[in-house]
Amino acid sequence: MREHIKESLSSFFIITALINIAMFVLGTIYRPEQRFGYEVFIYPPLNAALSCIPHLVMFSKKELTIKQVIIRKTIQLVLIIAIMLAFIMGDSGFDAKVAAGISVSVVIIFIAVHIIQWYLDLRTAEKMTEDLKTYLAKSETSV
Predict the structure, then answer these.
(1) Do the beta carbons of residue 58 and residue 87 sit within 8 Å?
(2) For residue 143, what pLDDT is reported?
(3) What is the pLDDT of residues 32-54, one digit of tens each?
(4) Is the pLDDT of residue 99 over 80?
(5) Which conformational region is residue 93 in: left (phi greater than 0), alpha (psi within -120 to 50 degrees), or beta?
(6) How many domains does the chain have?
(7) For the segment 105-127, what is each residue's pLDDT rounded down to a tens digit?
(8) Which CA distances in Å does 31 have to 23, 131, 134?
(9) CA 139 to CA 143: how far, in whole Å?
(10) Residue 101 · residue 26 · CB < 8 Å
(11) Distance CA 87, CA 45 (A)
């Protein structure tokens, strides 16, 4: 469980950074004339926290098959899109163009987060492998 929370925190910070980029791009496209105050700075971490909820709720202690992981990730993506659309468009009314932009942004961010996490995990695994090789080489020379 501790590892799952650590992974969720890592996702939170990656998502926050990517949401900032997505807000800039979507804002530039759909509302270039709009300006904000300081209160807008709370939305990226709030959106990231909301996006992490499906990941936290769908935690499983058992090892999942590839099919189960794909189904779970698909459900998570659909839930994140629904949460973001409800949160962002809930009080301002539905606009199909904006909804499409938000949905595409969520999919891109979802994929980017998984690629970034995969890369970080790969680097960690490579470091652990090198450390293990060094340890084994030292233990062979001491025998």
Answers:
(1) no
(2) 62
(3) 888 888 888 888 888 888 888 88
(4) yes
(5) left
(6) 1
(7) 999 999 999 999 999 999 999 99
(8) 10, 51, 55
(9) 6
(10) yes
(11) 13
Q: What percent of the chain clears pLDDT 90, i.e. is strictly above it?
A: 33
Instruction: Return the structure tokens found at 38.
Output: 């300081």
135: its two tokens = 């340890």
- Per the listing, tokens 């990656």 go with 14
Give the number of C-alpha atoms closer than 13 A to the C-alpha of residue 6, restricted to the C-beta side. Answer: 4
Distance CA 105, CA 18 (A): 9
Buried b (16+ CB within 10 A) or exposed e, 106-132: beebbebbeebeeeeeeeeeeeeeeee
- Answer yes or no: are the C-beta atoms of 26 and 108 closer than 8 Å: no
